């Protein structure tokens, strides 16, 4: 697939995405149960007054929420793009291959069994859970004479996600005191955390983004086939290992911040490839920018759909992503049939 854009138009499309993210960020800071004029938003940054109620809402609630939506959306989309490339599976994403479920299980287990609440500790649990889930799914998808295949990987991911989710639900029943808070988190939400509490997460996500950009040329070679990649002197095992590390950093960190938000990592890479073609030099930055835009737009929509009541962003992405997943699964099934 060559993509819709060529040459300088790809850079134009990327710049348009950055502008879109900036516009959505301003809207995200402005809208909600309490509407804040854009002029007040600007004023809160230039002449912040702690005694001003609107300024306080913007700085302590709206800005962190917007930043989380941006960072988590970008991370999930980049992780999904890498997973689809490394597994050659168009249905791959942190949600469909059980990575989110693994991170959620370990985080809920830490909160329920050991009363862990510190974000750095939850972050480590998220990384471990994501890595364990990815390893199990990869192993199950590789067993048998035929070895690893996209279909087996998808089935293994669905099975592990369901298994981990059932254990997570069981632990939630044990933890009645924190049930409501954990249930809200498990639907996927970028609301309610301070920037300071989640600050330890951002360096790991930044490392994940930079590694993904650095890996882009190698991913392009790997998608040509392992024999071709080895013939060009590439250590395919090392590249896949680094790719898995990036997915763990981005998906595990995202779950620790915002819960298991689905479909961003599935939907965005497909649209991006339709626009820019198969080069991951463009796919990775496009996925980051438009993943951030999608999650911010979903969060804004969740605040506007119902009067005086917000819908968690994870519910909104599920509403948007489920039809697309069904379409992809049907198309893949007809191709294999």
Q: What structural class should be given to the helix and strand makeup? A: mainly alpha
From the spread of the alpha carbons, the general shape counts as globular
Strand/helix succession = HHHHHHHHHHHHHH
| Number of strand segments | 0
Helical content (DSSP H or I, runs of 4+): over 70%
Gap between N and C termini, in Å?
22 Å
CA-based gyration radius? 20 Å
In the predicted model, the low-confidence regions spanning at least 5 consecutive residues are none
Major β-sheet profile? none
- Can you give the mean pLDDT? 88
- Strand content of the residues, in percent? under 5%
List the helices and strands and how they pair.
Blueprint: H1 8-30, H2 38-46, H3 53-87, H4 99-114, H5 119-142, H6 150-174, H7 179-186, H8 195-198, H9 202-222, H10 226-231, H11 236-258, H12 264-276, H13 280-304, H14 313-336
């Amino acid at each position: 697939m060559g993509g819709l854009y060529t040459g300088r138009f790809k850079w134009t499309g990327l710049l348009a995405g950055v502008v879109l993210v900036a516009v959505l960020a301003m809207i995200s800071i402005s809208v909600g149960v309490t509407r804040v004029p854009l002029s007040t938003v600007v004023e809160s940054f230039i002449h912040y007054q702690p005694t001003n109620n609107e300024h306080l809402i913007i700085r302590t609630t709206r800005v962190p929420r917007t930043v989380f939506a941006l960072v988590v959306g970008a991370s999930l989309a980049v992780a999904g793009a890498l997973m689809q490339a490394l597994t050659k599976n168009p249905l791959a994403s942190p949600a469909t291959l059980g990575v989110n479920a693994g991170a959620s299980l370990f985080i809920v287990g830490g909160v329920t069994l050991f009363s862990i609440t510190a974000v750095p500790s939850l972050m480590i649990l998220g990384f471990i859970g994501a890595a364990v889930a990815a390893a199990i799914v990869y192993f199950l998808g590789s067993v048998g004479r035929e070895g690893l295949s996209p279909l087996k990987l998808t089935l293994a991911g669905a099975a592990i996600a369901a298994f981990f989710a059932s254990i997570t639900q069981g632990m939630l029943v044990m933890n009645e005191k924190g049930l409501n808070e954990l249930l809200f988190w498990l639907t996927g939400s970028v609301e309610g955390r301070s920037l300071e509490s989640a600050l330890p997460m951002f360096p790991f996500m930044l490392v994940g983004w930079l590694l993904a950009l650095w890996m882009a040329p190698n991913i392009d070679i790997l998608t040509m086939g392992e024999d071709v990649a080895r013939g060009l002197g590439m250590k395919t095992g090392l590249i896949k290992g680094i790719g898995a590390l990036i997915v763990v950093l981005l998906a595990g960190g995202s779950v620790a911040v915002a819960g298991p938000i689905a479909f961003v990592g599935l939907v965005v890479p497909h649209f991006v490839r339709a626009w820019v073609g198969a080069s991951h030099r463009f796919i990775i930055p496009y996925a980051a920018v438009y993943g951030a835009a999608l999650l911010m737009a979903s969060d804004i929509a969740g605040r506007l759909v119902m009067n005086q009541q917000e819908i968690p962003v994870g519910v909104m992405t599920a509403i948007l992503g489920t039809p697309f997943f069904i379409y992809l699964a049907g198309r893949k099934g007809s191709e294999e049939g």
